[in-house]
Specification:
Order of helices and strands: HHHHHHHHHHHHHHHHHHHHHH
CATH superfamily: MFS general substrate transporter like domains
Largest sheet: none
CATH class: Mainly Alpha
Number of strands: 0
Distance between the termini: 11 Å
Radius of gyration: 21 Å
Helix content: over 70%
Length: about 450
C-alpha cells in the first residue's frame, strides 16, 4: 500500500463526527422507549400492540444493512452516511405534527431503514483512516456515541415530553439529523485506507468468495454474539423505561435519570475493555484471546448476573444497578466482535461483511420487543412477564458466550480466507498475508 500520512488531526475530526452521528442515532432509538407510556396512552395501545410497533423499526433494518453494505463497495461511505442522515430527518418530521398508529408505523419503518446501516457504515468509514492494530479505539468512540445518545436522551427527551409532549421530542431529533447532515457535507471524507481511494493496491482489490467469508467459524461465532447482544440491547431501549415505571415503581423523572445511568455505565465499561484488549495485543496476545475470549467472558458474566438479579429478592435500586451493569457488558461486542470480523475480511469487502454482521444481529431487535409484549399479556402478572423476557436474554448471553469461546479464532480464519483469495488471484502469491487482508498492521 502507498505510504500515507494519517497522523494529523483530520482522522480524529472524522471520528468525532461519526461519534456525533451515532449519538443522534441512539437518541432516536431511546426516545421511543422513553415516550412509551405517553404513546400508549395517547393512541390507546396495549403491551402487545406497542411491542409490535416497537418491532416494526426492524422490518427493513436488515434489508437496508445488506443494501448499503454492498453499495459501500462502490460508493463512498461519506455519501451513504449523508443519505442515512436525511432519511432520519424525513422519517421523524411528520410525527412532530401527526398522531395516528399508521403514521407512527410508517415513521418507525422508514427510520429503521435509515438507521439500519449506521453503525457498520460508521465503523467502515473510521477504519479507512486507521490500520488494523489501531482500530479498537476509533470503533470504541463510534460505540461511545451510541451510549452518549442514550445518556443524553434520558433527561433531554424526558424533559421535552414533560414540558411539551412526545411530538416535540421527535421534532428536535429530526432537526438534529438535518444539522449533522449539513456539517457532514463540508467535513466528511473517506480515508486513505479506503478501497475506493487506492485502486492500485493489492490490499484493496483482492476479493475472497463470499461463501467462505460468511461460513468461517469466526464470523459465525461473532454473528451469534452480536445477535444476543442486540437481543439484550433492544430490550433496553424499548422496554426498560417501562419496566422501571411498572415494576420498580420509579416516577417519570426518576426513570429518565435511571435510564441515563443505564447509558452512562456502558461508556467506561466499553472504553476500559477496548484499552485492555488493545494493550493485550500490543503485548503479544493473539486476537483470539485479546478480542474474542475477552468478549465472550464479559457476555458470560452478563448472563449470570442477569439471571441472578432477577431470581434473587433484591431492592429495586439494587436490582436496577445490577441489571444496568450486566446489560452494558454485552455492548463491548459492538467493538470487539466487529473488529474481529474486519480483521479477517479483505478491505474491498469489509463494508458488506460488517453490514451483514449487523443484519444478522439486528433480527433480534425484531423479535425481542414483540416477544416481551406477548410475555406481558400471557403471564400471571406484569413483573413475571418482564422477568421471563429478561431471563431469556440472560440465558442467550450465556449460550452465545460458550459458543464464542469454541468458534472464534481470527488468526486461523484469516489464513484460510487468504488461501482461498490467493487461489482466485495467482499473481498475488508474493503478497504479504497481513497486507492482503486488512491493510498495514
Amino acid at each position: 500500500m502507498t505510504q500515507v500520512d494519517v497522523s494529523g488531526p483530520r482522522r480524529w475530526v472524522i471520528v468525532a463526527l461519526l461519534t456525533g452521528f451515532m449519538l443522534i442515532n441512539f437518541c432516536d432509538k431511546a426516545a421511543f422507549g422513553i415516550a412509551a407510556p405517553a404513546i400508549m396512552h395517547d393512541l390507546g395501545l396495549g403491551p402487545a400492540q406497542f411491542g409490535a410497533l416497537a418491532g416494526s423499526f426492524f422490518y427493513l433494518f436488515s434489508l437496508s444493512l445488506l443494501l448499503f453494505g454492498k453499495l459501500a463497495e462502490t460508493i463512498s461511505s461519506k455519501k451513504l452516511l449523508l443519505i442515512c442522515a436525511f432519511i432520519w430527518t424525513l422519517a421523524q418530521l411528520p410525527i412532530a405534527f401527526v398522531t395516528s398508529v399508521s403514521a407512527l408505523y410508517a415513521s418507525r419503518i422508514l427510520l429503521g431503514f435509515g438507521e439500519g446501516p449506521s453503525a457498520p457504515l460508521c465503523n467502515h468509514c473510521a477504519f479507512t483512516w486507521f490500520e488494523n492494530r489501531e482500530r479498537n479505539l476509533p470503533s470504541t468512540f463510534v460505540s461511545l456515541g451510541a451510549f452518549a445518545g442514550l445518556l443524553v436522551a434520558g433527561p433531554l427527551v424526558t424533559h421535552i415530553i414533560i414540558a411539551y409532549d412526545w411530538h416535540r421530542a421527535y421534532l428536535v431529533l429530526s432537526l438534529a439529523s438535518f444539522v449533522w447532515g449539513v456539517i457532514w457535507i463540508f467535513l466528511g471524507k473517506d480515508g486513505p485506507y479506503s478501497s475506493l481511494n487506492v485502486k492500485s493496491s493489492v490490499a484493496t482489490v483482492l476479493r475472497a468468495r463470499y461463501l467462505p467469508l460468511f461460513f468461517n467459524r469466526t464470523f459465525i461465532g461473532a454473528a451469534f454474539i452480536i445477535w444476543t447482544s442486540y437481543f439484550a440491547f433492544s430490550l433496553i431501549f424499548s422496554w426498560v423505561p417501562s419496566y422501571m415505571r411498572a415494576v420498580l415503581h420509579f416516577d417519570a423523572s426518576a426513570t429518565g435519570w435511571a435510564f441515563m445511568f443505564f447509558s452512562f455505565l456502558g461508556m467506561p465499561i466499553l472504553f476500559v475493555t477496548s484499552l485492555v484488549s488493545q494493550r493485550l495485543q500490543l503485548r503479544g496476545a493473539s486476537s483470539k484471546h485479546a478480542r474474542g475470549w475477552l468478549n465472550c467472558g464479559l457476555l458470560l458474566l452478563s448472563g449470570v448476573l442477569t439471571v441472578g438479579a432477577l431470581m434473587l429478592p433484591l431492592a429495586p435500586l439494587v436490582r436496577a444497578g445490577i441489571l444496568a451493569f450486566a446489560w452494558n457488558l454485552p455492548q463491548v461486542s459492538f467493538v470487539l466482535a466487529v473488529t474481529v470480523v474486519a480483521e479477517i475480511t479483505p478491505d474491498s469487502q469489509r463494508s458488506t461483511l460488517l453490514c451483514a454482521l449487523s443484519a444478522i444481529g439486528t433480527t433480534a431487535g425484531l423479535i425481542a420487543p414483540a416477544m416481551t409484549g406477548r410475555f406481558l399479556e400471557g403471564t400471571a402478572g406484569v413483573e413475571a412477564g418482564y422477568h421471563s423476557a429478561f431471563e431469556l436474554a440472560g440465558a442467550l448471553l450465556i449460550v452465545s458466550a460458550l459458543a464464542g469461546f469454541w468458534l472464534i479464532n481470527p488468526e486461523a480464519s484469516k489464513r484460510k480466507i487468504l488461501l482461498g483469495a490467493r487461489g482466485n488471484r495467482a499473481n498475488d502469491s508474493q503478497s504479504d498475508p497481513q497486507t492482503v487482508l486488512s491493510g498495514r498492521v
